[in-house]
Amino acid sequence: MINDSFFLKARDAIAQADGLLITAGAGMGVDSGLPDFRGSVGFWEAYPALARARIGFSSIANPGAFESNPKRAWGFYGHRINLYRETIPREGFRILQELSQHMAHGAFVFTSNVDGQFQKAGYNPRRVVEVHGSIHYLQCQNGCLSDIWSANDFLPLVDDENCELLSDFPMCSHCGDIARPNILMFGDWHWLDHRTEIQRAAMINWSKEVERLVVIEIGAGTDIPTVRNLGDNVSGTLIRINPREADSDSRNSVSIRLGGLEALQRIATQ
Hints:
By secondary structure, the chain is an alpha/beta fold. Helices cover 38% and strands 18% of the residues. It contains 12 helices and 11 strands. The strands form 3 sheets. The protein has a 6-stranded parallel beta sheet with strand order 3-2-1-9-10-11, sandwiched between helices. A 3-stranded antiparallel beta sheet has the order 5-4-8, with helices on one face. A two-stranded antiparallel sheet has the order 6-7. Strand 9, helix 11 and strand 10 form a beta-alpha-beta unit. It is globular and about 55 Å long. It starts with a helix and ends with a helix. The mean pLDDT is 92.
């Protein structure tokens, strides 16, 4: 049972804020029915073909996978593209928008998710930082000419049972090599980050105008702590929502040990 005082403190910080920074990890997508890749069990339940081959997340989410077996690598990422295109963002996205409506500077999003769900939920794309890139954009697998382009025209046909791409590969128009998602992968030296850096610069400019910041962090774990590190190091009140890792060393913080959607619903209840 979570003490009501935590929610009262969170509501008070939100009421006084003039800007909301939403920092989101995988827990945000789980509330919309997306798979949780934390740990081999959850990952292999979503991709049984990779379980049979004993291929873990860090091995398939790796630029080397596009060199050794591009059909399988694109089977994995092609399935995810289709899944994210079909997924409807759930209520938590709407609640966050409503919480920021009274704020003079509105909301900005900083997310490690590559699924594009915030934009799909109606958030201004110019106010979203996709710190690990986006599956909805492509690049040459060798970083050719530093070009990044939309994946909208790529319609992957995937054999889900065997995790293999059946349709043609997306190709780099400059060198003819196979394209890959513009996502920061494990052991990735060829990820092109200039799209993300433009987003970061926009967030920094926005934050300079905000005087009373509140940060709502949803489902950001410690395994890949990019999102948590930001929340721990910005000014303002941090509201950390996480069912397993809600603790914070910051004195100016509220820790809520619940799933994202349930916590947001309780915060929004007047």
